[in-house]
Amino acid sequence: MSSYPDKPGAGVLIAGGSGLIGRYLTSLLLSRGYAVSHLSRKQDNFGRVRVYRWDPERGIANSAYFEGSGYIINLSGANIGEKRWTPERKTEIVNSRTGTTKLLYKIVTENNIKLKAYISASAVGYYGSAANGKIFTETDPPGSDFLAETCRLWEETADRFEKTGIRTVKIRSGVVIEKNDSALSKLMMPARFGFLVQTGNGRQYMPWIHISDLCGIYLKAIEDQTLSGSFNGVAPSHITHGDFVRILARVLGKPVLPVPVPALFLRAAMGQMADVVLKGNRVSAEKIIKAGYKFTFPGAEEALKDVLAY
Fold first, then answer.
1. Is the pLDDT of residue 46 over 90?
2. 38 CB contacts (<8 Å, ≥6 apart)?
3. What are phi and psi of 91, to 5 degrees?
4. Are 68 and 7 in contact (CB under 8 A)?
5. What is the pLDDT at residue 182?
């Protein structure tokens, strides 16, 4: 049986709270009576949320910011799809994840901050992008490509909290279904010209999750003290990129171009980063379901209809 916080208003400190997931998660937590604060590189305005400035690159953050927070959620990380993966950009992507985690760990341990849980973002990229027909679970080892190595280092750094006795949860999210600021919004861009396009052969799997369900899993990670370790943050239905685009086209009432964007074109334009859209695996949601989480949007069509209805 799950057990819940003894104080419904327990503080939650979110690093990277101004991002897509952070914004939705903040609204959910506030609606549930939690006191939420953010660590941010810039002074954002979030209404009832106190925003503290920090500088992870320089290792600067005030330990006073952590007072009253029983939970830390770390969503920090450079956007993997924002720029071409040069060697310098790869270093930035890794350091933006491991560096923030190390700084949080340093402050927590050096100041003897009593946490109920440390919850870290991760990604299904942990399993690698080499499709082999397998359905990946949390017990599988990491893959060998850049994203897999990034996620492995990210999670290993988070495990430092667990080694000190702090309950630690790592959520490996898939493609987040949200209308305005997500991978879905990029897939929808051609719709302004009256059509949608498929990338590559379309047979690559696309692990995905509705933003509400992903935030629901984070909430469960806070409230269910039996949760620890890694959990896949993906919907239970497996779908290929081609099928997803066809469902999206049906929901939008737009045709799909009969000729897909060739893989060679994408690799020329994006380099190694093209693997993000050209490759993908099936990833299991069974562990989080067995832990008691019930998906609001288990199917792609209902998820798309929901986010596109507003």
1. no
2. 13, 14, 15, 17, 18, 22, 26, 44, 46, 49, 50, 51, 52
3. -60, -40
4. no
5. 67
Specify the long-range contacts of residues 145-149, CB closer than 8 Å, at least 24 apart: 145/275, 146/85, 146/90, 146/272, 147/80, 147/123, 147/275, 147/276, 149/94
Residue 57 DSSP one-character state = G
Q: Count CB-CB contacts under 10 A for residue 22.
A: 24
Rounded Cα distance between 129 and 205, Å, is: 10
| 3-state secondary structure (DSSP) of residue 13 | strand
Rounded distance between C-alpha atoms, residue 230 and residue 159, angstroms:
10
Secondary structure of 133-181 in the HEC alphabet? CCEECCCCCCCCCHHHHHHHHHHHHHHHHHHCCCCEEEEEECEEECCCC
pLDDT band of residue 4 (cuts 50, 70, 90) is very low
Reported as a single tens digit per residue, the pLDDT across 233-266 is 999 999 999 999 999 999 999 998 877 776 776 6
Domains of the chain in start order, with CATH, are 11-242+268-307 (3.40.50.720)
In the DSSP assignment, the letter for residue 237 is S
Helix (H, G, I), strand (E, B) or coil at 308: coil
pLDDT over 80 at 40, yes or no: yes
Determine the 3-state secondary structure of 67 from DSSP: coil
Q: Which helix (H) or strand (E) is 108 found in, with range? A: helix 87-110
Rounded CA separation 25/46 (Å): 12
Which of 111-125, 137-151, 191-205 shows the lowest mean pLDDT across its residues? 191-205
Q: Which pTM was predicted?
A: 0.92
Q: Rounded CA gap, 158 and 139, in Å? A: 17
